[in-house]
Amino acid sequence: MLARKSIIPEEYVLARIAAENLRKPRIRDRPRKARFIAKNGACNLAHKNIREQGRFLQDIFTTLVDLKWRHTLVIFTMSFLCSWLLFAMMWWLVAFAHGDMDPSTENTTNSTKWTPCVTCVRSFTSAFLFSIEVQVTIGFGGRMMTEECPLAITVLILQNIVGLIINAVMLGCIFMKTAQAHRRAETLIFSRQAVIAVRNGKLCFMFRVGDLRKSMIISASVRIQVVRKTTTPEGEVIPIHQVDIPVDNPIESNNIFLVAPLIICHVIDKRSPLYDISAADLALQDLELIVILEGVVETTGITTQARTSYIAEEILWGHRFVPIVTEEEGVYAVDYSKFGNTIKVAAPRCSARELDEKPSILIQTLQKSELSHQNSLRKRNSMRRNNSIRRSNSMRRTNPSLIVPKVQFITPEGSQNASET
After folding, report:
1. 303-311 and 287-297: which strand pairing?
2. Residues 160 and 210 placed together within one structural domain of the fold
3. Domains identified in the chain, total number
4. If we measure between CA atoms, which residue out of 211, 244, 217 comes closest to residue 304?
5. Can you give the residue range of the structural domain that contains 165?
6. pLDDT tens per residue, the chain (421 residues)?
7. Angle at 389 (CA atoms; ends 386, 395), nearest 5 degrees
8. Dihedral in degrees, nearest 10, Cα atoms 147, 148, 154, 160
C-alpha cells in the first residue's frame, strides 16, 4: 500500500474516482410518469385483449380511413388487381365455353356463320387486358364484345358495378385521409411550458396558443381538463379521473378570436383543482393538465381539434410570458422566436387558499420584489460608476498625453523671499 501511494499521487486517485462516478448512470428517485396526452396531441393509450374484432369490419370505411398510409395504399392496389384478375378469369371462361379458344375457328372468324363473344380474346393475357379495358373504360378498340353471348353481357354489367363501388370506396377513403381535420391542427401550436403567476391579484395558470396560418379558426374554444389518480372515500381507485376547470374568458360564448397568439388564463380559485397546491407541492403532484382547442376551419368548414398536455415538471411557478406582438409601420408583427420565452416575476410561493386567507402575503411579496429591484438597480449604477472611473484611470495611465501637467505659479513676493533665503 505504501508503494502504491508513493507511485500514484492521492490527487490523481481522487480525480479518477470522481470521473468514474460521473460516468455511472444516475438513477432517478421518481420514475417518469406516463402521459395520457403527448405534447403533439396523440393519445398515449394501448388497446389490448379486444375479443370482438368483427366490430371493426362492420364499419369498414372508418377502419380504412384510420389505417396507416402504407396499409391503405396496399389495399387500394390489391383491390383493383384482384378485381381485374377475377373478371379476367370470368372472361376467359366465357370465351372458352363459347369455343373462342379453339384454333380451328381462327380461319372462320371473319365468316358470317360464326361470331366470337369477345373479339381478339384467345388467351388469359388477352382476357386480362380486356378486363382492365372494361373496368377502367379505356377501350383501345382491338378487343370488343359482341351480341353473340348473353352471359358476356351479364359479366360486363357486373364488372361495371363492382368497378364503380371499388372506385367510390377507395377514392373516398384516400380523400378523407388527406382532408382529415387533425391535419389543420398541425399549424396550431402551444407553448412547451405553462406558467403560474399573479394576474389581477389572483394566482393564475397560463399558457400560450397560436395559429401559424392566415386562414382563421372560426368559433375557436379552449377547454382544460385535469387528469389525476384519485381514491374515493369508499376506497375505489380511479386511475384516470377527469375534472373540467374553467377558463377566464370575458366573452360569454367562451369563443376566442385567434388572429394572433393568445395567453389563455385559468384563475386558481375555490373551483380549481390547483387551489390547495403550493410551489413546493407542485413537483410532488401526480397530475396532468390537458388542453383542447376546437374550432371550424375557415377554408373547408371541417371541425378540427388540437390537443396538448402539461405535467408538473412543465409548469413554471413565478414566471410570465414575454410579449411577442409589436406594431411595426402600421402592421402588427408576431415574433414566433419568443413564443415560449418566459421571465421570472414576483409571485407568492404559497397556495391560492393561503393567499385568499392571508392577502397580506401578496403585498409582502410585492414589497420584497420592489426592494430587491431597487437594490439591483443601485448595484448596477454603482458598478457602472466604478467601471467608468476605472476606465478613465486606465486611459490616463496608458496615454501620458492625456495627463494634465501641474503648473506652479510663483508670486513676486515669493521670489524675493526665496532669493533672500
Report:
1. antiparallel
2. no
3. 2
4. 217
5. 67-179
6. 444 444 444 444 444 544 555 454 444 445 556 788 888 878 877 777 777 777 777 777 888 888 888 998 899 899 999 999 999 999 999 888 887 777 666 555 454 567 788 888 888 998 999 999 888 888 777 788 888 888 888 999 999 999 999 999 888 888 888 877 677 778 889 999 999 998 888 889 999 999 888 888 888 888 898 888 888 888 888 878 888 888 876 555 567 888 889 999 989 988 888 888 888 888 888 888 999 998 888 887 888 888 999 998 899 998 999 999 888 888 888 889 999 899 998 888 888 888 888 877 777 776 666 666 566 666 777 777 777 777 777 766 666 555 555 545 455 554 444 444 3
7. 140
8. -50
What's the grid cell of residue 330?
402600421
User: In whole angstroms, what is the distance from residue 265 CA to residue 267 CA?
Assistant: 6
CA separation for the pair 234, 237 (Å, rounded): 9
Let me know whether 165 and 194 are in one domain: no
Collapsing DSSP to helix, strand or coil, 297 comes out as: strand
In the listed set 362, 383, 403, which residue is the last one of a domain according to the structure? Answer: 362
Q: What is the DSSP string of 303-363?
A: EEEEEEEEEGGGEEETEEEPP-EEEETTEEEE-GGGTT-EEE----SS-HHHHHH-THHHH
Is 42 a domain residue?
no
- Is residue 320 within 8 A of residue 265, CB to CB? The reply is no
Question: Residues 329, 355: one domain?
Answer: yes
Judgement on whether residues 143 and 222 belong to the same structural domain of the protein: no
Cell matching residue 163: 368497378
Domain co-membership, 301 together with 202? yes
* Angle of helix 124-136 versus helix 150-178 axis, rounded to 10: 60
CATH of the domain at 84: 1.10.287.70
Helix (H, G, I), strand (E, B) or coil at 51: coil
